[in-house]
Amino acid sequence: MITTVLKEYGFDSKNFIVQPFGSGLINSTWKIIQQNESYIVQRINHLVFKHPEYIADNIRLVSCYLQDNYPDYLFVAPVKTITGKDMICVDGNFFRIFPFVQGSHTIDVVTDPATAYEAAKQFGAFTKKISGLDADRLNITLPDFHNLTLRYTQFESALNAGNTERIAIAALFIEQLKKHRDIVDAFENIKSDPAFKIRVTHHDTKISNVLFDEDGKGLCVIDLDTIMPGYFISDVGDMLRTYLSPANEEEKDFEKIEVRQEYLDAIIKGYSNEMGDELSETEKRSFIYAGKFMIYMQVLRFLTDYLNNDIYYGEKYEGHNLVRAKNQLVLLEKLIENANVQ
């Protein structure tokens, strides 16, 4: 199938090397090497992204805007097929090809504050540069992706219709989780507050979505499948959720979970320095809330899946999603505790 795809792009089918690439969980990715040039081939998971053409339209829109307004900005746009398409469909599967940025690399774990700063800087720079693009022109590639109110409603539905045995097992944890319902209330207020601007937002700011050079400096952001209208709390919150603690969401030993202040400071500094006055004063005071917003949403999603018999995330052992939920609640409460002592 890859050979068929490459022919659509004019590749010589006899002179390329195909290698699996990256650690992404949604799309399938390969690196293609042909002579002195390299490319990235991706198969879009159309079970997750119901309308792959929406992704192509969004990326094309952003690419054109940046080319017209910031031609020197490094933006990794898709390669065109022989017939000028951004994406092709082969046997019901959707594929696209990107140029591989020579001298670049990605990382999977944030191990120092400088890296957190560089990543936050790149996401801030990207958001600032496209701030003039009307967010309403973008397609919604994942409806309600970061809708905290909906996630809480789904959680309540699971309490009413979920696995009764699991609801009983998690009873004390459920009550503990409900005590943070104010985070949902705050999100409802944000949606009606003009101080929070709806912007073109990345929505998936994990560290592996930043390209770094050989000196560890950020080059640009990648993986724009989730680029949609949204609030800055989505991007900052996802960085805080995934960069702050040395222990990720799979860690069973909750003693290893912590909020590293120097990483928190680095994220805020890197993002704020690039965004500048693009952020309102109210938004500038909401960085900690951004972390609470994203972490709480992930707690709800893990626990809801556990109560619904692991139909979304699946499980690798009994109670896996309950452990993940408890892990994230520890992180949430440590972030709140950290903010209260500042």
Write the layout of secondary structure elements.
Blueprint: H1 2-8, E1 17-20, E2 28-34, E3 37-44, H2 52-69, E4 88-90, E5 93-99, H3 113-129, H4 148-161, H5 164-169, H6 171-178, H7 182-191, E6 199-201, E7 210-212, E8 218-221, E9 228-230, H8 232-243, H9 261-275, H10 281-284, H11 287-307, H12 320-340
Antiparallel strand pairs: 1-2, 2-3, 3-5, 4-5, 6-9, 7-8
Helix pairs in contact: 3-9, 4-11, 8-9, 8-11, 11-12
Please outline what is shown here:
The protein has helices at about 1-10, 50-70, 115-130, 150-160, 165-170, 170-180, 180-190, 230-245, 260-275, 280-285, 285-305, 320-340, and strands at about 15-20, 30-35, 35-45, 90, 95-100, 200, 210, 220, 230. It is α+β, with helices and mostly antiparallel strands and about 350 residues long.
Can you put this structure into words, describing what you see?
The strands form 3 sheets. A 5-stranded antiparallel sheet has the order 1-2-3-5-4, with helices on one face. A two-stranded antiparallel ribbon has the order 6-9. Helices cover 45% and strands 12% of the residues. The chain has 342 residues and is α+β, with helices and mostly antiparallel strands. The protein contains 12 helices and 9 strands. Helix 3 (113-129) runs parallel beside helix 9 and helix 11 (287-307) runs antiparallel to helix 12 (320-340). It starts with a helix and ends with a helix. Strand 2 and strand 3 (37-44) form a beta hairpin. The model has no long low-confidence stretch (mean pLDDT 93).
